[in-house]
Hints:
The protein is α+β, with helices and mostly antiparallel strands. The protein has 14 helices and 22 strands.
Amino acid sequence: MLSKFQNHINKNFSFLNGKKLLLATSGGIDSMVLLELCHQLNLDIRVAHCNFQLRGAESDEDENFVKNQCEKLDILLFVNHFDTKKFADEHKLSIQVVARNLRYEWFNTLLIINNYDYILMAHHLDDSLETFLINFTRGSGLDGLTGIPQQNGNIIRPLLPFSRDEIEVFANANDIQWREDSSNASDKYLRNKLRHDVIPVLKELNPSLLPSFESTISNLQQAQTLVDDASRIVYRKVVEDVDFQKKINLSELMQLPNYQAYLYQWLEPFGFTDWDSITDLVSAQSGKQIHAQKHSLLKDRNELIIYQKQESEESEEFLIEKEQELVKFPLKIYFCKVDDISVQSTNTIFVDEEKLQFPLLIRKWRKGDLFYPLGMHGSKKLSKYFKDEKFSLIEKSETWLLCSHNQIVWIIGKRQDERFKVTKQTTKILQIQLQ
């Protein structure tokens, strides 16, 4: 196995030579074999061990075991203790999801603060088969059936071509010690049920199951490449990136056969999962939304708009005192007294200071708001102005107003109010500029 592993590294991961590597080590057979292989190849490794404190004394014994092995090999060890159950209870997440998130977050922190290059994980071919079956039973797109990736950013999995049997043979032949996780014997988790009950039957039916699975994964990965290429080509025609938003043109999209497949490719990375509701949203009325954890999908006229959720401000109103020269939040706005008017734009206005009543107020628009557009006679409701200017629902929700008492001075960054403009009678001119 050592020579096969070395050939695999030289062929697919030659860039690891000379790099600073962080090896995730639980103490189980997979990570201990990977540790031994990397040590024998003289790769520049250090070890990270997570104690999730889920199995009492057994977790502490795993930690001590890894410490002893690292001391024997003279390898630097990092250990972190997590109160995993408490974190899961507080955030209403499963233990498995929490452990995974905590683990990867810590690993990446170690990489950044120590200037390491890559994280090595000990997933192997049987793990990839189990992941495939889990996704298959739960329902998955093509990307969920392509197995565990050998490389995902700075995460490398060099044992993926090797089976669990190969790893056990190598461990026994080289007298490698390891720890058995008692939770692996429980059928409480779906992965263990598949490992103990389903996969043995599949291997009995097909003794060449793992080589066949490797071939299938290779074919699926090639198919995924074709899908990705097609998705990128169509994306450039149908989706517009504007101000941290993605706008999907529904007229263009609906001309495509199987447009739902393209939506899946584009939306899945943002955490959207309710595909029936997304399909319904395409033909829904404007204003309907679907929410993922960090993003929302909005139907607005002839577009679907993907945007990131914003943290709500503690206060929706912000006061500006008379002599204040700078506002930093929610927008950066400068106030400056000037002698005459220079170039006026949507981001810079000039007002008659004596017409203002301080403190001024910055707030969001409200139903019933109206203003007197600069250069026009009479008033106009903001809702009508937004409609005429073809504001999306997102743009309306993000619009701020500068107000004097109950009157709008400026739709900030958009349009000034006629009532506060500078005239021949003006003696004090105030320049207001949006940064």
